[in-house]
Design brief:
Blueprint lengths: L1 E6 L5 E5 L6 E4 L6 H15 L8 E7 L14 E6 L3 H24 L14 E6 L2 H5 L4 H18 L1 E7 L9 H4 L4 E4 L5 H8 L12 E5 L7 E4 L5 H12 L4 H10 L1 E2 L9 H8 L1
Parallel strand pairs: 3-7, 3-8, 4-5, 4-6, 5-11, 6-7
Antiparallel strand pairs: 1-2, 8-9, 9-10
The protein binds adenosine-5'-triphosphate and magnesium ion.
Length: about 280
Amino acid sequence: MKTITGPTGQCSQLYLDISKQTHVLVAGTTGSGKSVVTRGILNALLYRASGVSADRAELILIDPKGTELVEYKYAPHCISYASASNDCSMLGVLQGASDLVDRRFATMQKDPSKMDNRHYYIGSDVWVVIDELADLMLSPDASVVKRLIQHIGQLGRAARVHLLCCTQTPIVKVIPTEIKVNFDTILALRTRSAQDSRNIIGISGAEQFPKVGKALYQCPDNIGITVEDLLYVDDSETKRLVDHWRGQYTKNELRRMSNNVYDGVHSPNSRYSGFLHKLFG
Ligand SMILES: Nc1ncnc2c1ncn2[C@@H]1O[C@H](COP(=O)(O)OP(=O)(O)OP(=O)(O)O)[C@@H](O)[C@H]1O
Ligand SMILES: [Mg+2]
């Protein structure tokens, strides 16, 4: 599956090809456009996500502020959503994503027809989106969070479970080396200092960018790091897209789906049972 993130400096198109670029880190100072980039990637996924076979995308959303990704909660593709109103739920959803990786591997071991010739799971691509990594990594549960993110980062590729993480706090406590090495694609948006830029992507330069719209970009295909222009999407576009997908289902189907979306605000005790039900039920 490919998703457009924006024009390149040369006005050709910049793609994320998630069969090659498994996990994506988006970092930059507050207001630099991290959430806009994230929504651009998600919209591009949803534009292509036909709901059938290879192009199917599903979303597991961790949105500490409860405002940046909330529109996607209502998309039929969303299998799980949590915000910071309930810390336990964000952890529960992350645990659910990590369990999904394990279950997919267990399925492939039991039934080799569930994997393709690259030994990848045959099924939907699942995106685990964390809008602000620092909210989890600086919480009292940091060591558990680190273990879960590392687990998804290391094993997610063949299970087709991908990380898309944002942070405005590019310090070692938030993106320790064990986690950072798993991100094969990095976008460094405007940073506060040259040191922040180096922490994110290994070189300085992002501190000189205008407030929004530019990024230092590193991906497995690139030799070196390039400067890219980023796309802009507004909320109304996202709403139209989500409404379009909701329009493909009957009211009853949508009700059943939304009942199964794990929402830590409304069902703090259910942990991720609804989430698992939706995936495997
Ligand atoms: N590529 C862009 N082109 C034009 N405007 C943009 C672009 N990206 C972001 N903006 C503007 O900058 C604002 C801040 O963007 P965004 O909310 O994505 O920042 P952020 O990095 O997520 O901030 P925070 O860390 O506070 O969550 C947006 O509301 C939008 O108006
Ligand atoms: Mg944001």
